Recover the amino acids of this structure.
């Protein structure tokens, strides 16, 4: 192959300098043909070796033989298909045989056959420890190489003098002395170069095979049971011969030319490592038809299961006095434990739905509600509920479930100074949070590992009209799945209004899936028109499906819209829309951010974001943009490698299963590992 490559390079150079290239092209074509022939020879050789091993075994029986141009296709009575090629091309190739004691032999040219050695020991061709040598021709060197297991590296073949054997021309073109079918059609006859004779009966009316779908090694998990249908033709009797240690196998009585083999794997990984034709890992079945017999084998293996980590029991952790997690930052950080949240309440939803009043949002002491069960906890919001200084956590009792929490009614949760609200590992419907007149911020809004079902309005809207209004210290929104099917067009998930004069210390919107099925929706995820400053915002590893950071010419929008901000990080997100979707657009596509301020001048980092879809055929519209059209000129930053605020669409669909969103598959293709959300 290297020689062919070198010739092609040489030909390119010569072609640039003159027109007489015929000789070089002839050499290239000859070499191509030569390499093709060598590959065919290696394949034919390995096919002959496999056939030789199978046919040499006692009990082999043939169902059919078809011959075409010196190549025989053989179907054994156990369903295996072999190929025997009598005439080989004029190439020195290993003359492989089996001696009288069942060991592999090999000779090159006119040498005397010698046993093939592995680690100075001869190699059995028959029996339960038999190995099948595999040969190939090294494309770079033209020499023969050999191995005995697919897990091994190929090694050079050496002759009796220790010299490597080159695949060169010879006048000896036959792998066998002769190959033929007897005149009466009842046997298949082979004579090897060393005069070893092999005769195998042909019994067309006798076969014992598995269904066609049963191929290769059958893999089982611990204690798993499977049934395998066996097809019988002309079988007088059938019996189970061998089963690996620790396995269980039973064979049904034949009925209508069929039998069922039931196999159960051991409880643990106690089986031996699989070896070809080994009773320790093969289930063997003997079928007889008169004086003929065949052995049908099923190779089985227990696969290592992924270790199952014990389910996290949040209630037990809390009861032990340990910290579940920490919310907030710096001096405002709060550890979620029994010290800081001395009151807890278990809410069991396993039998039926439960309904509680909104006052559970305003307990006298910091409280954790542990939810469990598949039914719904309805919190009646017949009006707004203030949380002045209150601290409440809603969390699943166990990490294995996400209990349902529904806020029913027209009222909302009103955050006030020093309050904190936490949702962890629950399914939330109709969540609406706002603010009241207040002289200070709420501490924390923390939502993690939740499913947010079809919000019909902003989750957080600090947009009151009676100043002074309190804001929030930190917003944490991570590892959530958000169904955007009912979210209104041209709205924002989180909205910090213009009357907020206090600062937001940290905003983390990370590792979330935002999914809108069908028609494209446009709007924002985080909007802050506050007079206060968003100190730090991280928007990373989000997967955003059919939700564009866009609005209309009268109201600029992007995924992030900020009047005052200090530090912005936008990394590793995947923005996606179904191909050629333009519904609802009146502007120039989808943008990641809009920043209006220049005092203080923000620090902006935007990198490694992947975009796909919209309508690539309309060059002046439906673009993916780094920044939106109302961004201050001084804050316009390009993604690395891009220009003019445009992010180039990815060359192909970034998801491993296009169209798999409805079934919950949002996994990126392997080359985009680390991009977008990673939710289990």
């Amino acid at each position: 192959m290297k020689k062919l490559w070198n010739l092609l390079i040489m030909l390119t150079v010569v072609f640039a300098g003159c027109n007489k290239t015929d000789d070089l092209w002839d050499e290239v074509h000859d070499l191509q043909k030569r390499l093709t022939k060598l590959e065919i020879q290696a394949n034919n050789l390995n096919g002959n070796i496999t056939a030789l091993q199978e046919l040499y075994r006692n009990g082999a029986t043939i169902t059919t033989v078809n011959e075409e141009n010196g190549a025989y296709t053989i179907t054994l009575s156990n369903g295996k298909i072999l190929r025997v090629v009598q005439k080989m091309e004029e190439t020195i190739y290993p003359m492989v045989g089996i001696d009288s004691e069942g060991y592999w032999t090999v000779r090159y040219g006119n040498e005397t056959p010698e046993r093939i050695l592995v680690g100075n020991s001869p190699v059995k061709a028959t029996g339960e420890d038999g190995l099948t040598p595999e040969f190939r021709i090294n494309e770079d060197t033209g020499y023969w190489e050999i191995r005995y297991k697919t897990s091994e590296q190929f090694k050079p073949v050496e002759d009796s003098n220790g010299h490597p054997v080159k695949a060169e021309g010879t006048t000896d073109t036959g792998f066998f002395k002769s190959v033929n079918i007897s005149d009466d059609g009842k046997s298949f006859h082979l004579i090897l170069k060393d005069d070893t004779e092999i005769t195998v009966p042909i019994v067309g009316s006798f076969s014992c095979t598995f269904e066609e779908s049963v191929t290769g090694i059958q893999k089982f998990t611990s204690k798993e049971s499977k049934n395998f249908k066996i097809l019988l033709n002309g079988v007088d009797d059938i019996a189970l011969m061998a089963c690996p240690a620790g396995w269980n196998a039973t064979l049904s009585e034949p009925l209508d030319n069929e039998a069922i083999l039931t196999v159960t794997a051991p409880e643990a990984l106690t089986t031996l490592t699989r070896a070809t034709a080994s009773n320790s890992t093969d289930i063997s079945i003997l079928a007889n038809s008169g004086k003929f017999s065949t052995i049908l084998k099923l190779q089985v293996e227990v696969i290592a299961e992924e270790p199952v980590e014990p389910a996290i029991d949040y209630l037990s952790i809390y009861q032990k006095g340990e910290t579940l997690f920490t919310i907030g930052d710096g001096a405002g950080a709060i550890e979620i434990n029994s010290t800081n949240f001395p009151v807890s309440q278990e809410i069991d939803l396993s039998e039926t739905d439960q309904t509680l009043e909104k006052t559970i949002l305003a307990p006298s002491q910091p409280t954790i509600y542990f939810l469990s069960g598949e039914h719904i906890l309805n919190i009646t919001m017949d009006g707004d509920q203030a949380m002045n200084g209150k601290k409440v956590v809603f969390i699943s009792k166990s990490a294995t479930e996400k209990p349902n929490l529904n806020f029913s009614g027209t009222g909302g949760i009103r955050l006030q100074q020093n309050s904190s609200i936490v949702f962890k590992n629950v399914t939330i419907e109709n969540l609406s949070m706002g603010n009241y007149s207040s002289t200070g911020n709420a501490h924390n809004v923390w939502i993690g590992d939740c499913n947010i079902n079809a919000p019909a309005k902003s989750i957080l809207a600090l947009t009151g009209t009676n100043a002074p209004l309190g804001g929030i210290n930190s917003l944490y929104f991570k590892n959530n799945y958000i169904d955007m099917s009912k979210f209104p067009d041209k709205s924002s998930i989180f909205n910090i209004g213009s009357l907020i004069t206090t600062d937001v210390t940290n905003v983390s919107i990370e590792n979330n899936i935002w999914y809108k099925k069908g028609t494209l929706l446009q709007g924002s995820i985080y909007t802050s028109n506050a007079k206060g400053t968003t100190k730090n915002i991280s928007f990373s590893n989000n997967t955003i499906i059919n939700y564009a950071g866009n609005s209309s010419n009268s109201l600029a929008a992007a995924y992030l819209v900020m009047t005052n901000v200090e530090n912005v990080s936008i990394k590793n997100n995947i923005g996606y829309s179904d191909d050629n979707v333009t519904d609802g657009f009146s502007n120039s596509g989808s943008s990641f951010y809009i920043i209006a301020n220049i005092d203080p001048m923000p620090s902006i980092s935007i990198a490694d974001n992947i975009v796909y879809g919209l309508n690539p055929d309309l060059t002046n519209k439906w673009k993916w943009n780094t920044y939106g059209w109302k961004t201050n000129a001084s804050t316009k930053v390009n993604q690395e490698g891009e220009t003019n605020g445009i992010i180039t669409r990815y060359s192909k669909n970034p998801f491993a299963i296009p169209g798999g969103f409805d079934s919950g598959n949002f996994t990126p293709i392997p080359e985009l590992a680390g991009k977008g959300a990673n939710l289990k």
Observations:
- Confidence is low (pLDDT under 50) at residues 1-37, 269-280, 582-587.
- The longest helix spans residues 22-56.
- The helical segments are 2-17, 22-56, 314-319.
